[in-house]
């Protein structure tokens, strides 16, 4: 059945391309955060272990919201690691860095997701796709706040 929600198929497709990049960034950041949760060591172990768990749980919920928005716009959501690796601006970590490097990488990842979300906003605004704009705004708020909290762990007094 045809989709008639007041946004052309061409515009929906362009938005979905951006949301697919956002989904990929979010999933790669989820995987990286979960990896760091499992493998963090050192004097901040408990703090970071718990913080990373909160973050990957939030990211797991976010991938579902983003994928469901893609589906609501009438396109399949990407769901393969190879696609995520190709579309994501975040690189996977294959090793086990030290705790401070983990924090730095996660700050960079949170900021990357924010930039990706922000890059989709002009089109969603242009075509009055308020549900996508709202989703993007919420995602940026979460990622900017999380990046700030992580950065705060690296600052000297």
What does the model show?
It is built from 5 helices and no strands. The longest helix is centred in the N-terminal third of the chain and has 31 residues, at 9-39. By secondary structure, it is mostly helical. Helix 2 runs antiparallel to helix 5 and helix 4 (99-126) packs antiparallel against helix 5 (130-152). The protein has helices spanning 9-39, 45-72, 81-87, 99-126, 130-152. The protein has one domain (9-152): Ferritin.
The secondary-structure element order is HHHHH
CATH topology: Ferritin
> CATH H level: which superfamily?
Ferritin, core subunit, four-helix bundle
Helix content: over 70%
The radius of gyration computed from the alpha-carbon positions, rounded to a whole number of angstroms, is: 17 Å
Q: What is the structural class?
A: mainly alpha
What is the CATH-assigned architecture? Up-down Bundle
CATH class: Mainly Alpha
Residue share in β-strands: under 5%
Mean pLDDT: 96
Overall shape: it is: elongated
The N- and C-terminal alpha carbons lie at a distance of 60 Å
Major β-sheet annotation = none
**DSSP summary: helix tally:** 5
Total strands: the figure is 0
């Amino acid at each position: 059945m045809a989709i008639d929600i007041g946004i052309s198929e061409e515009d929906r497709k362009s938005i979905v391309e951006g949301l697919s990049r956002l989904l990929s960034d979010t999933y790669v950041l989820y995987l990286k955060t979960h990896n760091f949760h499992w493998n963090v060591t050192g004097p901040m172990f408990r703090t970071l272990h718990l913080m990373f768990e909160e973050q990957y749980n939030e990211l797991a919920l976010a991938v579902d919201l983003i994928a469901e928005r893609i589906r609501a716009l009438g396109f399949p959501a990407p769901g393969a690691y190879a696609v995520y690796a190709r579309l994501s601006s975040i690189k996977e970590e294959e090793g086990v860095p030290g705790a401070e490097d983990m924090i730095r990488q996660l700050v960079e990842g949170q900021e990357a997701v924010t930039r990706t979300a922000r890059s989709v906003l002009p089109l969603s605004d242009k075509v009055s796709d308020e549900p996508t704009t709202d989703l993007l705004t919420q995602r940026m708020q979460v990622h900017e706040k999380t990046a700030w909290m992580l950065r705060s762990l690296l600052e000297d007094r």
